[in-house]
Amino acid sequence: YLVGVGRADCTGPVAQVPLMGYANPDQVGGGLLSRLYSRAFIVADPEGSERVVFVSADIGMVSQRVRLEVLQQLRSKYGELYRPDNVILSGTHTHSGPGGYFQYSLLWISSKGLVRPALSAIVNGVVKSIDIAHENMKRGRLFINRGTVENSQINRSPFSYLKNPESERSRYSSNTDKEMLVLKMVDEDGHELGLISWFAVHPVSMNNSNHLVNSDNVGYASYLFEREKNAGMLPGEGSFVAAFASSNLGDVSPNTRGPFCANTGEPCDNPQSACPVGGAAMCMAKGPGNDMFESTRIIGQNIYLKAKELYEEASQEVTGALSSAHQWVNMSDVSVELNATHTVKTCKPALGHSFAAGTIDGVGAFNFTQGSVEGDPFWDQIRDQLLGEPSNETKACHKPKPILFNTGEMTWPHPWHPDIVDVQIAAIGSLAILAVPGEFTTMSGRRLREAVKSEFDSHGTPGMNVVIAGLCNVYTHYITTYEEYQAQRYEAASTIYGPHTLSAYIQLYRGLAKAIALNATQELSRGPEPPLFNMTNVTLLPSLSAENAPAAKTFGDVLEEVRQEYREREVAEVTFVGANPRNSAENATEHNFLTVERYSNVSSSWRVVLNDASWDTRFYWSKGSRGQSKVTVEWHIPAGAEPGVYRLRYFGHYKKRVSLLRTVTVPFEGASSAFQITAP
């Protein structure tokens, strides 16, 4: 094959924008722990015209808006080379990235509308990563390997999982998929290019009290792998690209100690995930570490170590033709033939009461609990007044789900949920990547993989390695099995197209697999094209206005200085007169907020040893009054840090008023005093 890899920043604004994932209105950005990246991989046939693009981006999910804008840019650059059928865009599902990049109204509520700088950062980052991969295409080889990851996940809805038939459950040793699949890429001389790992786990080691933008456990795994392979480079630099992509993670949590009542410490592993005192709002899962930062590192390191082992031992070469199959489908109106006599249908989208309960990884608001199959008269009345009562048809279609948000019948200012959804498979020789538009649960994913594999088998393509890539192309929440749907926990309440959603997807993906196996992808109907809404800049974000420094100070001045001396495992920190980091996101694409620099006696100069993409640094911004704000830079000095003289630097932009109606953005910087790191 011809193989190309690329990586580009897609972080966007790190302040004031709500973080996407927990739908917690209080969880807005207030700084940066690690940068977010888009990682792109292109595999092409050196002789023919076939090629496949797989992108994994450190974002909550790929929205339809992101996908359509990326495809527009690719078309204007490359013509028909990169198209809806051969470009897969997948989100890692970090819950600590900026939101605001959606066109459907439901997702505006928790994102404060459309945040153009966040959307642009993602779209431009994805396109740039593809550009870099495109420019670096060279002859190469692919290898595949799979293995088991231990101690890194639990099923967070085990009572739903138990609804699946005993005969089916008895075929599996666990209620989560522990298998990791790794695709290794080298050039023809054996030089390492990169890898993609697929593994099912929610990147929610960082909980909903976090305000620092970061890529969570899977992002930490990417960081460790790239740091090792790009030795001597700063984080985010170097040619080796390691993507840790999402899979069927719907009911899979990294918080391995399980759910406990925050107030009493009692376990709350019950069908309602509720505590005796305080109800569901008190029931939260704990990760393996002492705090969320440590848990993120522990889970991320587990995933990285397994991927490294599988990568190093990968010997099964991937060969064979490239092909891709794609359709747009109106998911609110699919007829599914369950058997010769029985046909069922999907529904207009709707969310159930338990959607509002959240999960043990991020509890919801008010007093909603999981497992609600009855509505609540109080909330139903509020819903009817505010949003309109669901039609009888929609109510009946979704049974036993009591509908809280009847999104499929809500169209102001735009539809609240998508109807038109992408289904897509890309085949690279013996590897079939199923790009799914949401979060399949463990058992849903097993059924889908099995159905697609048997479809390939029965049409003369046996032995395919089938992997699910999650959160691709458009976000449609969750996909549970029909049996899990009956329990109406969070995942089922969020299965928006009703109880037969999974059956519909299985039917559709079988059709794609058959077309690939029979070399008939040209004959698939394209389906109805999704809308691209004409979006005005509807945002509730505070506007960026002129800023001030305190009296007798200027931007970048030190307010609280570092100590003169530190040891490893201590935290060096300095606080500066700061400015809103959104100014930087909107004025510089490649902006570093901070550096850690070491003094070199040889060259008598300062050398950058870390940047803000490092997981050892933290950048905090806090807004004060009268247009003033502070920035704190922390360096959590790792064990084994080289002794010597160091300093911390901060780079920002402030808004300066130049006339009554006009402000300009002015760059500035600040530096701490020098400090010593002493040997332990």
From TrEMBL:
The gene is Asah2. It comes from Promerops cafer (Cape sugarbird). It is an enzyme of class 3 (hydrolase). Its EC number is 3.5.1.23. GO terms for biological process: ceramide catabolic process; long-chain fatty acid biosynthetic process; sphingosine biosynthetic process. One of its GO terms (molecular function) is N-acylsphingosine amidohydrolase activity. Its cofactor is Zn(2+). It catalyses: an N-acylsphing-4-enine + H2O = sphing-4-enine + a fatty acid. The keyword Signal does not apply. This is Neutral ceramidase. InterPro entries: Ceramidase_alk, NCDase_C_sf, NEUT/ALK_ceramidase_C, NEUT/ALK_ceramidase_N.
